[in-house]
Design the sequence.
């Protein structure tokens, strides 16, 4: 089957991203909780974040949370914030805040710990 | 029996109001529509739609004690009194319990609810295997009463852009028909942020369907087709 041009085709991609981020969070959360449960002091906490793959997984998880949250907020606003002049700035503010959070998380994972 | 019925005549009433009725009526074995007809005998200004009185025509959808139902298949017994009867939510009221279904039908027409097949017409009929036919069960039974769509909050917020569960169920009915050839254009039409994807799967439609159908599952099957096509 082929796809034809035309229309705003963002529905499926955004819905899939929401599903994918949900699956990622569902898989990671129990593992993270189980790992953190064994941590008793700050040294162990630091050691936990030393391997590169842990840093990458953490960053990916932060991105999944923010993508999921942004899509959720977009869904809420498509229903409750009908005036476009209000909805669009709000979506941009949330997007900017999300990007800042990603940068902040990267900083924490690579520089702080 | 005691009733509280939504009344509104745009020609004479400034605003809608609830009118109380009390009738001497034995509810045993009777349906809500029987009571409405008895009330209309007492007050013939009360307006409501009804036709087949057995859950096939789908014209007497009303909101009873907060739930969308077909009056003709809803048992009177067990309903909490006074029974509150209102028109289906979100649609414009023409008069009393009669709503303007135009928006609903517009969405229905938009999904092209007919078989699109460009092959030469066969001598007799287009055949299906039993399995192909079984794909349509749970989809063809819809009577278009509007109970599901008007119970859907996604439709309440975006009634002009979200197609609503009834139209999407009909879309699925033709998407999944082995004889239909327009799958691609049908999916193109639905792949939009509003028409299909306003559905959050809260299953209000399933809860309110008087025919026991599952529009949420039908919408899930459409999403499946969309994902299959995209990936």
Sequence:
């Amino acid at each position: 089957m082929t796809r034809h041009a035309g229309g705003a085709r963002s529905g499926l991609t955004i819905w899939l991203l929401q599903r994918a981020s949900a699956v990622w969070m569902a898989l990671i959360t129990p593992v993270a909780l189980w790992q953190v449960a064994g941590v008793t002091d700050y040294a162990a906490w630091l050691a936990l974040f030393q391997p590169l793959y842990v840093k990458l997984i953490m960053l990916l998880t932060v991105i999944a949370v923010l993508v999921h949250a942004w899509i959720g907020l977009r869904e809420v606003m498509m229903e409750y914030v009908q005036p476009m002049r209000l909805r669009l700035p709000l979506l941009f503010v949330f997007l900017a805040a999300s990007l800042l959070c990603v940068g902040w998380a990267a900083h924490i994972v690579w520089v702080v710990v | 029996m005691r009733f509280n019925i939504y009344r509104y005549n745009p020609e004479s009433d400034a605003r809608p109001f609830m009118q109380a009725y009390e009738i001497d009526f034995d509810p045993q074995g009777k349906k809500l529509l029987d009571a409405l007809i008895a009330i209309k005998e007492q007050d013939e200004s009360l307006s409501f739609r009804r036709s087949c009185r057995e859950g096939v025509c789908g014209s007497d959808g009303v909101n009873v004690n907060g739930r969308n139902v077909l009056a003709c298949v809803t048992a009177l017994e067990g309903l909490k009194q006074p029974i509150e009867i209102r028109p289906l939510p979100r649609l414009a009221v023409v008069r009393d319990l009669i709503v303007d279904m135009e928006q609903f039908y517009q969405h229905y027409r938009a999904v092209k609810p007919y078989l699109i097949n460009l092959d030469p017409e066969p001598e007799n009929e287009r055949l299906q295997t039993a399995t192909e036919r079984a794909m349509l069960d749970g989809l063809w039974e819809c009577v278009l009463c509007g109970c599901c769509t008007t119970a859907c909050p996604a439709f309440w917020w975006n009634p002009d852009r979200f197609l609503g569960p009834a139209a999407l169920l009909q879309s699925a009915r033709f998407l999944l028909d082995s004889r239909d050839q327009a799958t691609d254009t049908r999916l193109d039409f639905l792949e939009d942020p509003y028409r299909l994807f306003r559905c959050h799967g809260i299953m209000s439609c399933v809860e309110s369907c008087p025919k026991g159908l599952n529009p949420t599952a039908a919408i899930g099957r459409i999403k499946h087709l969309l994902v299959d096509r995209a990936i």
